[in-house]
Every structure is written in structure tokens, then in C-alpha cells.
Amino acid sequence: MGQVDSNYINECRKRAERGDCDAYYNLGRMYCTGHGVPMDLVEAHKWFNLAAVAGKIEAKVYREEISSEMSPDEVAAAQRSARQWVQTH
Q1: Which of 5, 18, 20, 24 suits 56 as a labelling partner, its CA being 20 to 30 A distant?
Q2: Residue 81 falls within a domain, yes or no?
Q3: DSSP states of 4-23 as a string?
Q4: Residue 48 is part of which domain span?
């Protein structure tokens, strides 16, 4: 993914607010790798989950991969966070 600047991150967040599946996926990639944001697998799982539900096949793959590195409590926290996002957006 390379270097990620704050303008790109902000643009992804704005697009995610509008329900953009690719923005969800890109945010997941950023949080998964720590590019431009602190590495956070719970946050990455949340974004990959949102993208997967919206039909992004690659997001399903990444979500499964990082799930194996997470505790059951972390996966549950990510799922709760995704549900909260859906309820508020």
C-alpha cells in the first residue's frame, strides 16, 4: 500500500461515512498494516467485516486471516463495533 497521507485517510473516512465499500476495505488494509494509522486488528476486522458484508470478496479473505491472530474477545469487539457503525450510519 505504500505511504499513506492524512488527506487520503480523511477521504477514506468520508467515503466510508457514505457507505463506500472500497473505503471500508482500504481502511481495513490501513489498520491491518499500520499504514498511516496505528496498527489495530480489531479496527481492521471491523472495516473488513463491513466491506465483506457489502460484497468485497478480498475483505472476506483478509478478515479470516486476521481473525486467526485475534482472541475471541477481540473478534467479538470488532463485530460489536461493526454493528454499531451500521446502526449509526
Answers
A1: 5
A2: yes
A3: --HHHHHHHHHHHHTT-HHH
A4: 6-88
Task: Compute the distance between CA of residue 27 and CA of residue 13 in angstroms, rounded to an integer.
Answer: 8
Instruction: Count how many Cα atoms sit within 13 Å of the Cα of residue 38 in the half-sphere of its side chain.
Output: 3
End-to-end Cα separation, the chain, in angstroms: 27
Q: For residue 39, report the phi and psi dihedrals to the nearest 5 degrees.
A: -65, 130
* Mean of per-residue pLDDT scores for the chain: 93
Structural domain contains residue 31: yes
Amino acid, res. 22: D
The reply to whether 1 falls in a domain is no
- Per-residue pLDDT for 1 more than 90? no
Using CA atoms of 30, 34, 40, 46 in order, give the dihedral in degrees to the nearest 10: 10
